[in-house]
Write a structure and sequence with these properties.
Helices cover about 40% and strands about 15% of the residues. It starts with a helix and ends with a helix.
């Protein structure tokens, strides 16, 4: 042990005398470590010494990036103390001889005998001491020494990806399928996973299932053919403790590289064949090469056809080495200091080719923070742009409002009243309202929105009410007409044609139509409002940012109210709707009955049918929901139609069944809903179009087929279609395939009817993309960050607010790069809002 460690000690002592300027070795200490580690490993005669070698090497590989003499001094002192202690402990005799593996001589095949007199020593690891030093550096990172970056974004980063050495036109075409077109795209094509091959292990200690790296010497390599014509390359690798066979299929060229006596590093998962340990298709590298695929934490990138993991990893290394240093850091020095963040260049190096797990964690946190920050800054900018506009202050006729509310056959809940107060206060201001109204199924959001629409109409202006489906738009039109019979209310949907549609267009343009309810048809180019003062968007999560903006721009800075019956966890609301003020109706009207929920496996379906029959015999009605089996409207219709026919003829032949799905014409849907509401249909077989809009107090059972296919939010929405009358109501969840995750979701449904609890659970189980149902059109992609990281989200939001308080439009030269990054991150979304 003494030779290699004494050489290193002399170099570190020389570095101390040179005031830690990293000049003890030409090119810096990091250049010397790969050479030193090979000789140190060869001399190591126990696992504990080998572990010490790895710890020292791992720590010193980041030496040049330590910020300042103080941190470098602490690290070198800790290493020298540990080396001295380890040497002194090894030189002290011990009583019990232990056989220890000898690491192979990398210049020749050498089955060295183990010296039975050698004692395995167990020095205290320096890992914790080094880790403590690095922790201190992390907490007090000296970023103030770095220059303030006020530069511009380098044009070179926008060069086509085939600018990179080794990437030709064909490869560039394949990379385009991954969304990679420029050098910057490639730099930010982050690994989707990592495999830790940094842990070395002697061959005689390998166990099946280990993900490890071995270093050894090739004994022999051969190529043969299987009966099916496959070319099989076999190589026997030894390390002085044992040998292991490695096998590759249809890669005969490997034999030219892995010739006898070659020193090689093998990384992979240990398997077994005929009782012997083997490696099948492992990663490999010659010891004198750059270690990209073995012996380290190896990045695993998203791939596409025609590009192998090894090739992409090699190209990424070239890109990171050449181009990462050219990217200026958009985060101001003060921001990095406040949050103890890595610099951008170091983060890119570490996230692609990590030195160790801790550095990888810091790099990922830095990049995720930047994404969260730019997302929040974009939302704040949209909010500020909207609020800086001059809107229409609407007069609130309190006498009319009090009379209207008192005329209702029920009292507003306190939550409804609070929401109404928030909205009317906003509408009375000349600053345009931009508010999100959340509330569970049946909490009374539509009534609050209708009152807001009436206020706009009473001011001689117009209100638009956009819903995601025709069924929901029709239901809103019906209920709002009943509430506000004195106002001209029109319904505009895509199914309207001819003179009827043209008349509605004219009514909207002239202002005859005061409250306009519709679907996406409201945002068509030929729809022109005379004086749009209020835009209401229902089920906001089904629309995108751009669609919302399009409706906003139909008027001159109208007030905007977006609503959702899907309770959205606060973390997701901050991410997706951070430009909106938030109001929550968290109280249900009195009299709503508890909906008892059960879940059954498919073999218990007959029990559910018997219960439905019993309920119908007692005078009640039921929904049976068919899932969308495939992503096709035709498949959905076929599923509902076939199930309707089967249930009508084989299961409920004596009962009256109806059918409804989203592709029926409006008149057919209306007829089905009216017949069901009036009691002419006992069981309504439907797709998920009944998720919103239908209110039938006599319906007491909701049976959901394939409930395991739905998220908690949608199951909760469907369940909300019952329980609207006085009778006890039930929701039966039938699962046709029960995975552990599905079982967890279905069990949660039986335990709570709190939509916000379910939404939080749904977010964690299925992730934000699945939770939202449809992608938020125009919302930037988060490559590294996750909205599930609540602490990081809050931290980024606070930082965004701090920056805006001091430099609202990021006009300070120090924020030039950050402002450009916000533009780049949001593309053209901000301009449309």
């Amino acid at each position: 042990m003494s030779s290699a460690f004494k050489k290193l000690s002399k170099i570190l002592e020389l570095e101390q005398r040179g005031n830690y300027k990293n000049k003890a070795v030409i090119g810096g200490i990091e250049k010397y470590i790969p050479v030193w580690i090979e000789s140190a490993r060869t001399e190591a005669q126990s696992e504990s010494v080998l572990a010490l070698v790895e710890q020292v090497a791992d720590s010193l590989m980041g030496y040049g990036r330590l910020p300042g003499a103080s941190a470098r001094s602490q690290l070198i002192s800790a290493i020298l103390e540990r080396i001295e202690l380890a040497i002194s402990q090894q030189e002290t005799p011990a009583a019990t001889p232990v056989k220890t593996p000898v690491v192979v001589d990398t210049t020749a095949v050498q089955e060295s005998a183990v010296d039975d007199t050698m004692v395995q020593v167990e020095p205290e690891p320096i890992h914790q001491a080094i880790q403590d030093v690095v922790e201190d550096v992390s907490d007090e990172e000296i970023v103030s020494e770095e220059p303030v970056e006020i530069g511009e974004w380098p044009d070179e980063l926008e060069l086509p990806v085939d600018t990179v050495s080794g990437i030709g036109a064909q490869t560039a075409t394949k990379l385009e399928k991954l969304g990679i077109r420029t050098v910057y795209d490639l730099l930010t094509h982050y690994p989707r996973d990592y495999v830790d091959y940094s842990k070395l292990k002697p061959i005689n200690q390998l166990e099946p299932g280990d993900q490890v790296t071995i270093i050894g010497t090739v004994k022999e390599t051969s190529v043969s053919s299987s009966r099916r014509g496959k070319r099989i390359t076999r190589s026997l690798i030894g390390d002085g403790t044992a040998s292991i066979e490695c096998t590759w299929f249809n890669q005969p060229w490997i034999a030219e590289k892995l010739r006898a006596r070659a020193a090689v590093m093998i990384s992979g998962t240990v398997g077994q064949y005929l009782g012997r340990n083997t490696f099948q298709s492992p990663s490999w590298e010659l010891v004198d090469g750059d270690r990209l695929h073995t012996g380290r934490i190896v990045p695993v990138y998203p791939l596409t056809a025609g590009i192998s993991a090894k090739v992409l990893r090699s190209r990424m290394k070239k890109v990171v080495d050449q181009w990462a240093p050219q990217i200026p850091d958009p985060l101001p020095v003060a921001t990095r200091r406040r949050h103890k963040l890595m610099g951008l260049v170091e983060s890119l190096r570490e996230v692609h080719f990590p030195s160790n797990e801790r550095q990888l964690g810091r790099a990922r946190q830095r990049i995720a923070f930047e994404e969260m920050l730019t997302l929040q800054l974009g939302l704040l900018r949209m909010r500020q742009q909207w609020r800086s506009a001059e809107g229409l202050a609407l007069e609130i006729d309190q006498e009319w409002l009090d009379g209207f509310v008192s005329s209702l056959p029920f009292e507003l809940t306190q939550a409804q009243q609070n929401a109404l107060d928030d909205i009317l206060k906003d509408m009375a201001e000349p600053v345009p309202m931009n508010r999100l109204l959340q509330g569970d199924v049946g909490c009374g959001k539509t009534l609050v929105a209708a009152i807001a629409a009436a206020i706009a109409a009473r001011n001689g202006a117009q209100a638009a009410f956009m819903a995601p489906t025709e069924i929901l738009a029709e239901q809103h039109a019906k209920s709002i007409r009943e509430l506000l019979p004195e106002h001209k209310i029109v319904l505009l949907t895509g199914s309207l044609v001819g003179r009827e549609r043209e008349q509605i267009y004219q009514d909207i343009t002239t202002g005859t139509a005061e409250i306009i309810i519709g679907t996406h048809a409201l945002i068509q180019e030929n729809v022109e409002f005379r004086n749009l003062a209020l835009a209401i968007i229902d089920e906001q999560h089904r629309f995108g940012v751009e669609q919302r903006a399009t409706l906003q721009h139909k008027g001159i800075h109208p007030h905007v109210l977006v609503m959702t019956a899907t309770p959205i966890p606060r973390t997701l609301a901050l991410s997706v709707y951070g430009d909106l003020d938030l109001t929550i109706i968290d109280e249900m009207p009195p009299g709503r009955k508890e909906i008892k929920t059960y879940w059954l496996e498919s073999h218990s379906r007959q029990r559910a049918y018997d219960f439905i029959t019993k309920q119908v015999r007692e005078g009640y009605q039921a929904f049976i929901i068919c899932p969308l089996v495939e992503d096709s409207a035709d498949q959905e219709i076929k599923s509902a139609t076939q199930e309707y026919e089967r249930l009508s003829t084989s299961v409920f032949p004596d009962l009256r069944l109806g059918l409804m799905h989203g592709r029926l014409k409006s008149k057919e849907k209306d007829a089905a809903m009216i017949r069901f509401a009036e009691g002419e249909i006992d069981i309504l077989v439907s797709t998920t179009v009944v998720e919103v809009g239908i209110d039938v107090p006599n319906a007491t059972i909701m049976l959901i087929e394939g409930a395991n296919r739905f998220g908690l939010a949608q199951l909760h929405q469907l369940r909300g279609r019952v329980g609207r009358g006085e009778a006890p109501s039930y929701c039966i969840l039938l699962a046709d395939r029960v995975t552990p995750e599905a079982k967890e979701r279905l069990t949660v449904m039986t335990q709570t009817d709190d939509g916000f609890v379910l939404a939080e659970k749904d977010l964690h189980l299925r992730g934000p993309g699945e939770f939202l149902g449809t992608r938020q059109s125009g919302l930037p992609d988060l490559k590294m960050a996750s909205v599930l990281d609540v602490e990081l989200l809050e931290e980024a939001r606070e930082e965004a607010q701090t920056l805006y308080q001091h430099d609202q439009w990021l006009q300070d030269p120090v924020h030039n790069l950050l402002s450009s990054q916000v533009d780049r991150f949001w593309h053209d979304v901000a301009g449309k809002n």
